[in-house]
Design a protein that fits this description.
This protein is α+β, with helices and mostly antiparallel strands. It has 2 domains: 42 residues, Winged helix-like DNA-binding domain superfamily/Winged helix DNA-binding domain (Arc Repressor Mutant, subunit A, Orthogonal Bundle), CATH 1.10.10; 81 residues, Alpha-Beta Plaits (2-Layer Sandwich). Strands 2-3-1-4 form a 4-stranded antiparallel β-sheet. This is AsnC family transcriptional regulator.
Length: 161
């Protein structure tokens, strides 16, 4: 199903429920039903339907990286020696095992992948990028360090779709 059809099946109330849950997934059903102006039982049914239909993929706590002394965020563009399926699959499996790689995207352009790496300090960041270099088929890494976080959100812009 394409995204336009997928999202067009949502009512205004469904969108309000999803927007509220994106901001506070610990909200009670009573608070949510008040916020979207429907009674608790229909609100709960809509919530469960949104989960079942795949609009909600999970719930989790957002941790404060400063509380864990994780102050360095870097973005590394990675090139592989080849684009053979076996090579890219091996690279992706290795990346999935690294808990300090927060995100990884296969991209179009000069590089093959971009990864977001988190570390305590520059020394640890260097160690982690060095580990990336050791992954088979990696031929080039170009890294940039974030110096100021302007925006970092998990919320999808479902109102503007």
């Amino acid at each position: 199903m394409n995204v336009k059809n997928y999202s067009s099946a949502l009512s205004r109330t469904d969108i309000e429920i999803l927007n509220t849950l994106q901001s506070d997934c610990r909200i009670t059903i009573g608070e949510l039903s008040d916020k979207v102006n429907i009674s608790e039982t229909p609100c709960w049914r809509r919530w469960k339907k949104l989960e079942k239909e795949g609009y909600i993929s999970g719930y989790g706590a957002l941790l404060n990286k400063k509380a864990f002394n994780l102050s360095v965020i870097g973005f590394s563009q990675i090139q592989l020696a080849s684009h053979h399926v076996e090579d890219t699959e091996q690279f992706e499996k290795e990346i999935e095992q690294l808990d300090w790689v927060l995100m990884c995207f296969c991209i179009a352009g000069d590089s093959d992948y971009v990864v977001q790496v988190i570390a305590r300090d520059l020394e640890q960041y260097y160690e982690r990028v060095s580990m990336l270099r050791c992954i088979p088929h990696v031929t080039s890494i170009n890294s940039s360090i974030a110096i100021k976080e302007i925006k970092n959100t998990h919320k999808l812009p479902i109102d503007s779709m």
